[in-house]
């Protein structure tokens, strides 16, 4: 491995994203090596014994670790300013793993009610099957957090901005409330990305990501990551994840590793474009509401500007006429694609009530503020004027 002449922790984000975790083989390759093997061999039986005993840092099996995966984990941890990172097969594997590894029957979890559909199912349906009590609160109501989090609460889970309503939660305040009661805070930072928001600086203990989104950013692979302290990774994550097996493919980790190199460029460009698109949508006839964290009209605009350097790549808006008008708009898009994915170089739009949040039911959608006329737009890297023009003609048609 090339010896760096400076401390990687002192590098700027762009340098960390290109060079963090770099571990070249003796061949001196420029692009990081891709190790596709599932297993490893040992020069002698004592070496295998030491590695399984944790006395040797070498690799033992693909489910436990891989050199390519390690480079991705170290690069993301360096960017976050975290001690450790654990890569997984998907974003939802990260969410479930981060929670399940620290919860057991009888424990109590508090979560914000504005959640991605699958996260909502994990909190309200899957974890309770194992005897874990869960409470949902309005994320913007600090009094509700104070009432719900008790000395019996083991863990707090939230996403900010939320999917799809872009609710923004006061990280510093909620982390402070949780810490006072001894609860760990797990933050879903997928929408903000580590480029725009660093939950650890506000007191969060664990951050979860879907690498499928902005880290890949080109719709190629699934992947996820959990960022935490070394103690949390070694004592809670590893024992749980190694034996349950949601390991990431080395190829997928390599794609995400290469995606990190351009993530800052992409996310910042997409965020600037999203702001312009959101402003244009506010002036379009037939659009009743636009939600974007850095717009003055957003309920938590001041807070989002404090926590996020830019408003993000996502814009949510509502059209008059409910589901029919929303579907009509989707049907007439010429550039923007209909898709439930996000964080892609291509602009994508979805109707949450009939897709990502369909299975949680009408009552839960109403509680989250998801209407039948709501549309979620992931702004890509196309010309911003072209995107605005596409929206204008779709709405007019």
Strand content: 5-15%
What gross morphology would you assign? globular
- Main-sheet strand order equals 1-7-6-5-4-2-3
**Which H/E pattern describes the elements?**
HHHEHEHEHEHEHEEHHEHEHEEHEH
* Number of helical elements: 14
Spans of at least 5 consecutive residues whose pLDDT stays below 50 are none
The number of distinct β-strands equals 12
Major sheet summary line? 7 strands, mixed
What is the mean pLDDT? Answer: 96
Radius of gyration (CA) equals: 21 Å
Structural class by helix and strand composition = alpha/beta
Write the SSE topology.
Elements (H helix, E strand, L loop, with lengths): L12 H7 L25 H8 L14 H14 L3 E5 L2 H10 L7 E5 L4 H10 L6 E5 L4 H7 L4 E7 L11 H10 L3 E5 L4 H4 L9 E5 L13 E5 L1 H15 L5 H33 L4 E5 L9 H7 L6 E6 L2 H10 L5 E2 L9 E3 L11 H7 L5 E5 L5 H13 L1
Helix pairs in contact: 1-3, 1-10, 3-10, 10-14
3D structure, described in words:
- By secondary structure, the protein is an alpha/beta fold.
- Helix content is 39%, strand content 15%.
- It is built from 14 helices and 12 strands.
- Strands 1-7-6-5-4-2-3 form a 7-stranded mixed β-sheet, with helices on both faces. It has a 5-stranded mixed β-sheet with strand order 8-9-12-11-10.
- Strand 2, helix 5 and strand 3 form a beta-alpha-beta unit.
- Helix 1 (13-19) packs antiparallel against helix 3 (67-80) and helix 1 (13-19) packs antiparallel against helix 10.
- It is globular, with a radius of gyration of 21 Å.
- The termini are far apart.
- The model has no long low-confidence stretch (mean pLDDT 96).
């Amino acid at each position: 491995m090339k010896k760096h002449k400076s401390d990687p922790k002192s590098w700027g984000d762009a340098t960390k994203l290109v060079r963090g975790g770099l571990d070249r083989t003796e061949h001196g390759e420029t692009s990081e090596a891709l190790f596709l093997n599932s297993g490893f061999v040992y020069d002698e039986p004592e070496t295998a014994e030491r590695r399984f005993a944790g006395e040797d840092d070498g690799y033992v099996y693909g489910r436990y670790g891989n050199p390519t995966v390690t480079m991705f984990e170290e690069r993301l941890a360096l960017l976050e300013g975290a001690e450790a990172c654990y890569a997984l097969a998907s974003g939802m594997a990260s969410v479930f793993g981060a929670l399940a590894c620290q919860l057991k029957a009888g424990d109590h979890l508090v979560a914000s009610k504005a959640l991605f559909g699958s996260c909502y199912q994990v909190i309200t349906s899957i974890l309770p099957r194992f005897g874990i009590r869960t409470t949902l609160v309005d994320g913007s109501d600090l009094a509700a957090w104070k009432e719900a989090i008790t000395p019996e609460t083991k863990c707090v889970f939230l996403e900010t901005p939320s999917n799809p309503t872009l609710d923004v939660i006061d990280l510093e305040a909620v982390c402070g409330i949780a810490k006072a009661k001894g609860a760990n805070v797990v933050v879903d930072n997928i929408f903000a990305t580590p480029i725009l928001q660093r939950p650890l600086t506000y007191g969060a203990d664990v951050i979860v990501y879907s690498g499928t989104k902005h880290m890949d950013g080109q719709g190629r692979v699934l992947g996820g990551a959990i960022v935490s302290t070394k103690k949390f990774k070694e004592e809670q994550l590893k024992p749980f994840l190694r034996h349950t097996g949601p390991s990431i493919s080395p190829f997928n980790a390599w794609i995400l590793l290469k995606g990190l190199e351009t993530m800052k460029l992409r996310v910042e460009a997409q965020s600037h474009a999203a702001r312009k698109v959101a402003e244009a949508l506010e002036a379009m006839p037939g659009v009743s509401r636009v939600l974007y964290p850095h717009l003055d009209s957003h309920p938590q605009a001041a807070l989002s500007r404090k926590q996020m350097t830019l408003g993000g790549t996502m814009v949510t808006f509502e059209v008059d006429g409910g589901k029919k008008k929303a579907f009509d708009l989707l049907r007439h898009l010429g550039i923007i694609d209909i898709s439930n994915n996000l964080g892609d170089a291509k602009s994508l739009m979805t109707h949450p009530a009939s897709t990502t949040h369909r299975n949680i039911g009408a009552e839960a959608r109403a509680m989250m503020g998801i209407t039948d006329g709501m549309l979620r737009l992931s702004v890509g890297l196309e010309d911003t004027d072209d995107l605005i023009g596409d929206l204008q003609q779709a709405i007019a048609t």
